[in-house]
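hey so i finally got around to running the thing on that chain from the lab meeting. sorry it took forever, my laptop kept dying and i had to restart like 3 times. anyway pasting the input first so we r on the same page abt which one it is
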Amino acid sequence: MAGAREVEQRPASGVVLIAIVGIAIAFLLSMALLSVAGSGNTLSETNLLFAALIFYAGAGALYLGFGVTGAEASFRFATGTTWLGLIANTAAVAHRWYEAGHPPFSSVYEMLLSFVWMLAVLTLVAQKKYGVKVIGTVTMPVAIVGMVLMQLLRSEVHPLMPLLQSTWLHVHVTLAILAYAACALSFAVALMFLVKDKMKTETFLVWTSASTSSVYVSILVARLKLWTQASSWTLNPAREADALAHKEVSFAAAALNSGLLLSLTLMAVATPLVFYALARWKKSDSLLRAADRAVFGSILMQLTTLALILVCARNGHYPSVLGDGFFPAILTTRAFLLPCMVGSVLISLLYLLLVWRREDLERLLPSSEILDRITYRTICLAFPLLTLMIATGAYWANQTWGSYWSWDPKETWAAITWLVYALYLHMRITGGWRGRRAAYFAIAGFAVVIFTFFGVTYLLPGLHVFG
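ok and heres what got predicted. didnt touch it at all, straight out
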């Protein structure tokens, strides 16, 4: 009878969370099956990546299910599905290596392929060695966003340019991938620490709403031409050859009229933060509960916006700014739009998991002292890798460009990343920093890693044009 009462006391919201993620996985599966059926080549790299995406998404859903129910069966299935995703990911890496004739290190697409593979490996190691069974609730969403981004980046196999035909490419990029994956793992463990350390759920609400709001502010700033129009991008097939010669394959067009839709979504994801501010001002518990409910509404709005933009881009034909015809809109020319939106949804889902199953999550996690120690050990692994990455990069740069350091944006931000983690280790060893301050540093460090890996490549181009 006690077990029956416990089941009855479980809120239906946890089931809703699993249902939402399950529907998303079913959508991915159907898209993958359609792609496989249309390609005629089952073992192509694209299909292998689709398979990895599906398995990683399934693993993420099962890890969420484990966090909701605490059922060991969910954890075992999540681990098995992660292994299946890793196998598909490994096959994609091997296929790429064979086709290109060199390790997959020469572009952002190839580095991301290797990064996701390493993140999956470290996830399995962390849960086996340290017993952090819910680590996949954070690392798998990161892997999912990476896999979605790979579907959009240019993936053609090209011969290595003379600049990259060096053994130091393999050494330098291998160190970078290992270091960044370790940083991602420290980020995930630091988040787990904050949960175990009894950080207020309202604080997580603030960070969730602020993070998702920043995503849509960035999207709007990057794409908004008029207040009611956001830029879409179209491809002119007739001019593709000429455009490729100038490294321009797309033409901007204010076409989707998605500015208003994105603005409404921004309002939806910012609403929980507004409710929280009002609740603190008026000291109202009812407004705090409204803020929680607003997160669920923001997820529905984000999913609706994502679906509409995909449908419009897939089915619409828009004029190019050159005025020489109508062409289909494509997302690959603005590859970060979709991953940013998917990432925003996943952030919100993780918050809902925390709200609905806070006590269960805390019970499933190791002690806060162990999590703090794991974060420290992971950064102790990442920091020397970052150091060697910068050192080998400097030596290679001197061989290639005649200078060890050129203050290239990628070099500068790699140095900033190194300094953040150096400060973490310095303050921990000499200042005795433990607990939340150390966790905040680990989270901030990974944010810098993300900008160094992706943001610098596209926003601050320099000598590292290859990624």
